Amino acid sequence: MIPKCRTSAYGLSHHIKIPCFSSLTDAIISPFSNTNCNQYFETPPSSNFQIQNPSFEQAHNEIHNSYTNSETYENLISRYEGSTNSKNAEKLKLLIIKNGYCSDVVLSNTLINIYAKSNDMVSAQKVFDEMPDRNEVTWNCMMSGYNKQKMSNRACLLFRSMLCSGIMPSHYGFGAVLRACQDSGPDGLKFGMQIHGFIMKTWNSLDVVVCNVLMTMYGSCSLDSMVCARRVFDEIPMKNSISCNCIISVYSRTGDVLSAFEIFVAMQREDYGFKFFQPSEYTFGSLITATYSSVSGFGLSLLEQIFSRILKSGFFSDLYVGSALVSGFTRCALLDDAKKIFEQMRERNAVSVNGLMVGLVKHKRGEDASDVFRETRDLVGRNSDSFVVLLSACAEFVLSVEGRRKGGEVHGYVLRNDLINSKVAIPNGLVNMYAKCGFIDDACKVFKLMEVKDEVSWNSIITGLDQNGRFEEAMKSFCRMRTGFLPSKFALISTLSSCASFRCIQLGAQLHCEGIKLGLDLDVSVSNALLALYADSRYLVECRKLFALMPELDKISWNSMIGALADSESHVEAVECFLCMMRDGWDLNRVTFINLLAAVSSLAVLELNQQVHSLVLKCCVSDDDVVENALISCYGKCGRMDDCEKIFTKMSERRDEVSWNSMISGYIQNGHISKAMDLVSLMMQKGQSFDCFTSATVLSACASVAALGRGMEIHARGMKDFVTSDVVVGSALVDMYAKSGRVDYALRVFHLLPLKNKFSWNSMISGYARNGVGDKALELFMEMRRSGHKPDHVTFVGILSACSHAGFVEQGFKHFESMKNEYGLVPGMEHFSCMVDLLGRAGKLDMVEDFIKAMPVKPNALVWRTVLGACCRANGRRTDLGTKAAEKLLELEPQNAVNYVLLCNLHASGGRWEDVARARSMMKRAAVRKAAGSSWVTMKDGVHVFVAGDKSHPNIDEIYAKLRDLTREMKDAGYIPQTKFALYDLETETKEEILNHHSEKLAVAFVLLKTSGLPIRIMKNLRVCGDCHSAFQYISKIAGRQIVLRDSNRFHHFNDGNCSCGDYW
Asked: Per its UniProt record, what Gene3D superfamilies does this chain match (predicted)?
């Protein structure tokens, strides 16, 4: 006979009668408004127990009438009660149908539980839906099953339905739904707090089990809910060991090590309402977690103390505690101690091995982690997590190729043993491993073949694509992910990074909006990624707004903002932002100083630079290579090359390409060209490779001093280092050869460039102009237009200069007009100056005056200086215009010595020696000095510099003797000294002697002392005078040598008595 009442895991020994609630809110308020809650819970004596639900009673009667063997019923329950096999579930289902037990709640609960344990929630839900009657156990089984499947939302919905059906949950029901809230993370916090409010109105608020689950829920859902968790703990009337372990565990997860140890100490002093409590293995495990999760600086000290307590308490042999210790010591970077503990453990399992490997991986010791896996493969079993950790170790190999090889072996193993789909974490690990090793195509193949993808899968592939430069694919993957998953902060951060790299600001702005909708913008990491996006895209206004609205700032936020301001040339604001960061108490790191020094470097304020340098020393980052390179750049721009040399010397073997480049750039910027060339020689001796920046910088220095030989060496070295194909280096080569007088070499390099940009074209056009080949410059300009390159302001400076030196007045005006009419370019002051020079060289001084009056802008010193120079060459014509130009110049630049020199030349050309004396007197009163005219030549033994009337050269006697011989031969050939270029009121013989001792004549005489057939290359810092120009024509014919002279304006190529300028200069 079947008993009327049975106590079972899936049934109740009493009937619960509860009114129906329409909502959770009703359930929270209605039962306890004005009613005694006990009326809803009736527990009649077992001897007189009567089933009050008619349908329930009817079902039992039917079963009783149709089934006469109670032993079969008992056997079904005992046989299948603990089963977890889906096949057993099907057998039980058939037996229930066969024997007519379809309405039995207990057997239906058993069937649901078996389905839930075998992960078949679809069948469990079907049984649940077909049940005519359900009790609390029915609902609890379903919620537990959904929790097991990580379907937290379904579990929470079931709990709502349970309340609406009139079932009052016990502590098991509350535990199940709180576990669902816990698994939901931050999304489950709100509902969990509602459940807490409901619990507070029942006697379950005093139940220690429910309170323990509440604490765990708060700790898992939000790190900001610690206050709520602690309040629950404090209100438990009689705490047990699990209560203490729960709150310690919660504190450990949040990194609040002090509070965790406070509970640990207090619970052993009977401060919380229970007897003296001995810590368990779970207590020690949580405390160990707290030590390495701590953000404070004394986590290691606490770990060592807790280790001593564990040894004293005898828990060292416990597997759980030992595994926690291994993880703790590895995360604190005490890897040798972790290995010792691991080796001393009596018992090990996959968890302890994985803990050691995880620590090694975290400290970038992938090879060591792989060795641990190999050495322990015969000692402990493996689980799926073991292979996941091993794959992460492969991703951290020093040699990515070796890591990929090892990861490929793991990939083959999991395929052969059918483990690839046993857990989604394994293919996720493969995607991550291949991506980090740089084999992104393999990562994409694994991702494509995955049967099941979760949020981590998408995060891994998006991050991998971004880190491997596949920015467009990363953004497309993010869009595909959104069809099945809500974006996580990790996916959003990586996609924003791709948007920044791909300069896709529109998609980035859309992601910003989506982040706001999902609340992800409140995460500081997401906000930092947005800052980087707007900063890289030069959207400084958006950067400022975002930074001001961020609810939380970290060190990365400040560094990003300082860097954004520095890059956008808001240098003063960047310094002010840095000062705010310091006032807020943030620690300064290398990134802070690198971004700050970028701003300080542009300001070129020595005192500020020294203050920042002091902070660098104080914060102990002075040995960082990047910081030192930035300091070299700062001091170089302040003109303090001595300080640069000190830092550079201190770096010694830590120098990199940037260090050498910074020093070379500093020397060049401060006019120390010879030191720059010496440093280049040292760089080449040490075998330092040349990058594109080095080559371009050094070539620029060679071009500035026309160091053709050194420039050719750099060219050869660049070819060895495979940088000459770079468009910037190629353009610098064109510029160097053109400025060194080898326009033929420049043209050859220009034609060999695989890619040309406007800088390449401009360098070649300017090179033609500087070397007096105006017609070639104009032809190249037309070719540039045909190639589709649009000319810019620099292009037209070269074109107008070419027209000026070649005397193409009409073409010059035509191109000048085309700037605005055809290309929409507004002429600058340098273009007006070129036009004035064009007219002045052509002797059209009247047109010069008219042109200046018609200028839409007020002429500056450059234009007036060009006018004055043109008047000086006019042999006394239009001295009124020259005088006016001189007055304007002295008004604009009273401290510029060149202006006084030109004024003296103007008066001297007309023979007005009194005016010359007055001009020199004005120059003396202004306390300015004329730059000495100098010429220099580069020989095998170095650079030889000469000044007018020089007596300092070691071979000066031989030079003057050679110069006398040259003068005699020139006069025999018809040379007549042009004494008008000796701007002194002296006798003719004295003027001839002065002209004969000009620096360029001394230089050419020195070179002719050597026997050679090579061209003579002379550089001069001032414009060559007419007499020297004439003399060089004679010398080139007498010596039979080509002479290339570069003065401050252009090149003169003398060959067989003729000059490339055609005497039009």
From this structure: Tetratricopeptide repeat domain (1.25.40.10)
